[in-house]
Amino acid sequence: MAVPVIAIDGPTASGKGTVAGIVAEKLGWHYLDSGAIYRLVALSALKRGVVLTDEPAVAALGSQLDAAFRGGKVWLDGEDVSTELRREETGNAASKVAALPAVRAALLARQQAFGEAPGLVADGRDMGSVVFPEAFLKIFLTASAESRAQRRYKQLIEKGLPANIDNLRHDIQERDARDASRAVAPLKPCADAVVLDTTLLSIDSAVQFVLDLVAKRRVGTLKN
Ligand code: DC
């Protein structure tokens, strides 16, 4: 039987990573943070001085990426890059390399390899549309740009990273526009996705919403 997949897509700072991680934990399933893979490629390019618009060179970095997710940390070429990965500069660079078709193609199989038993919760921009089109549940998690800027600000401050609310608001709008307007796998809800606006919802309510849908769709779909 095919491994069941829940795809959670949405714009940056919509809470999809947090929600997807908790849902995966509650179900005892694997979790894929696909944004982290694009961030790793961008970081690898920045560290090696590869120009972010050099499509073949960045795609080659993507195919050879020496990365690991272990013990709650992320490793790149044997170095713990967990903190660097979450920086806004890394996110913005990731959004640029993610617009290159050859980079997306180079990362496809690597992302699909996370689909292992007993199941996978994957979050990103194109989980439901491109990477796991057969996902039995597709969620599009969103929130207003203002509330996403506030959430990202709080997250960065809590991690001891630099943050400025006006810059964040501006970057989020710019990143949304780039992610939504690119030619390949643009950010938009799939026709078969359930849209959930979390502007006024707590993380717990969003998690419960997803778990309720899982319970409904699992009947007849899954055996555990
Ligand atoms: O979710 P995030 O902020 O960590 O993602 C960083 C960037 O990577 C985001 O601006 C767009 C890109 N991305 C993508 O294009 N496709 C994905 N599946 C995940 C992320």
Quick recap of the structure?
The protein has 224 residues and is an alpha/beta fold. The chain contains 10 helices and 8 strands.
- CATH topology, which one? Rossmann fold
The strand line-up of the biggest sheet is 2-6-1-7-8
Overall residue-averaged pLDDT value = 92
CATH class bucket: Alpha Beta
Question: Pairing-aware structural class of the strands and helices?
Answer: alpha/beta
The helix-strand sequence is EHEHHEEEHHHEHEHHEH
Which value, in Å, is the CA radius of gyration?
Answer: 17 Å
| Distinct helical segment count | 10
Which percent band covers the strand fraction?
15-25%
Give a count of the beta strands, DSSP E runs of length 2 or more: 8
CATH superfamily annotation: P-loop containing nucleotide triphosphate hydrolases
Main beta-sheet strand count, sense and barrel state: 5 strands, parallel
Number of separate structural domains: 1
First-to-last CA distance: 11 Å
The ligands bound in this entry are: 2'-deoxycytidine-5'-monophosphate
